[in-house]
Structure formats: structure tokens, C-alpha cells
């Protein structure tokens, strides 16, 4: 890689040794790959990352047949180089130690203490590379009464309070706790881990000192509740579920149109007046029960059915056109086919296509990070299992073909 090409990659000088699998760790590592870092993904020989088989759907090859790459795996592994190493063997452990010695960062999401028995824990690797940054991602962290529990996103969403806030109100049909449609605790842990590693790299560059990072899904889930946390801490009252409504603003919710759903977010009395005027129901603004937001909140149960009946008279697009013209905040509830056909999403380059060794090409979601001088660099598609084993072990560690053949015959790689 030339000096000029490295300058165009924000993190082109960084090597990440990625010992993670599933989502939180791979999501973090993919951020680094997008920003130009060299990411070496280490997987088990034969099986690899569990998510490779978490399908259907699977990526299809050029003949239309399923490949071995599940769509789930494709979501979090772009831009990496993949090697397979059996870390339970002494030879495999030696390979990982040598790679760590030549890396800036090690990411891992094994159970607490599991890597220590292989000599691949932070204390062991720090002995040979004092400036190493080592990030562990677990469900509950390295200490505390739950430290040795396995951590799953769904469970953490419940334990961390998210599901007490999400879902329809208990007294309404379909009421009750609801998880998010994606693994938010995993994804946000991956994002927080990215920030923490970047901070540690900056500290290392200033001082020469490496450090250990302890990331826990439960910690992240608690932290990301933001104002709901402080609402509770300030009042002593746990917030409750409101579904798609707002506890303090009316109307600020979803409505069914004649052919779909829209969101209306009337944040003040003026916007509310314009909303009902657009629907031909001006009297709902002059009625003293509904003329101010406090009155609308108090009379929510009376007002919302009237608004719902009004909204059903027009289509989704009719309402969006009317309300945009009137200056009332609104938006559709899109399916993913709508999302990727949206002109704004297209303009922002949020769908990308990369060449793929078996499928010919693969459609992926672009990074939301827009940097003017060092934009995301989509180096390669998610790698096949063990695709770069020989290349990495030869170029980085200096193994020859005979050694690699011996390792392969013994199942070490």
C-alpha cells in the first residue's frame, strides 16, 4: 500500500486482530474496516462465525443457488480478511500471539476468563506488547455477580429496562413489553466499543501506553436509555410504555391512512391547528378541550379517535404532501423496499454493491459516516471462511507453504 493511499484512509495505519463473532464485536470491527484499518478476522476451522449459518436468507451465487454466507453474517463483516485458526491448540495459540504482537488492537468477545487458559488474555499479551489495546465485549462485564453469565441481546433488552418502555400500553389490545426489531444492545455496544478503542488509540499515540477496555451489553443498554433514565432519577417514578404515542404531547403518534400509516408529530398548538385544518376539521382546534396541548393530553382518549377517523379519509402520500406544505412534521412508516427506493437514501449512498468471489456481487448497506477527507473505504466484501489464511500467515508471520500444509493437515488452520 502506497503512502498516498494510506493518507486517504483515516485508519490505514491500524491493524485490528478480531477474535469476535456474532454481532457486537464484528460491528465494531466493521467500523474500523470501513475507516481503512486492516482487520484480520479469526474464526474456527470448519464452522467459523456462528452467523455464517444464521439463515435463510443466504447470499445466492451466480447460478441462483444458496452460498454458505447468511445475510446476517454479511451485515457485519465487510472489509475484513478472514483466517481460520484453532486457538485450543498450542500452535494455534502461538499464531494468535504472533499476530497480536504485530497488531494495534485485539477485539474479543469470549466468556469471562476463557482466553486466559490459552494465554490469550490481556495480561498475557501485554507482556510481549505493552502498548497493545485489548477490548473485551461480554454480556455483563468482567466483574459483578453476573460476570460469568452468557449475554444475549434479547435478555439484556429486558434486564436493562428497554422493554419496560417499548410496546403498546398495557391497557390496550396488544399491550405489553416488546423488544426492538434489531439487536440494539449488540449494535450500540459495537458503537461504544468503537469509540472506546479510538480513545485508547489516541491515548497510546500521545503516551505510548496501551490499555484494557471492558465493554458490557448491560452497561450499554442502561446508558442508552438517556432521558428516560434521568426522568426516573429526577422523579423516582419508572416510565411506562406508550406504544407509538407520547406521554406529554398530543398528537405525536402514528395514524392509519387509507393505504398505510404515517407519523404526525405536532409539537405545538400552531402545528396542531394546521394538521386538523389540512384534514378539514378546523373545529377540532377551536374546541376548548383540544385547543392547547395540556388540554389535548387531558382529553387524549376523546381526541385521538376523532383524529384517527379524519386521517383515514386520505392516502399516505396525500397526507404527507398536505402536511409538508402546511409545515406540520410528518413522515411515512416505510418498509425496507420503500427505504432503499427513497430518493434521500439513494442520494446519501446508503446502498452499495461490492464484487464477491462466489456471488459475483453483493448488495450491502453503506456506512453513515461521511468524512470529507477520509471517507469510508469499502475495501472488500465480507470474506469467505478462511479466505485469507495463507496470505496473512505468509505475509505477516512469514510461514512457508510446508508449515501451512502441516498446520492444515492437523486441523490447526
TrEMBL record:
Keyword list, A-Z: Transferase
One Gene Ontology MF term: transferase activity
First and last residue of the signal peptide: none
Domain of life, per lineage: Bacteria
Keyword Transferase: yes
Keyword Transit peptide carried by entry: no
Pfam families on file: CoA_transf_3
PANTHER family found in the cross-reference section: SUCCINATE--HYDROXYMETHYLGLUTARATE COA-TRANSFERASE
Protein name: CoA transferase
Organism: Undibacterium rivi
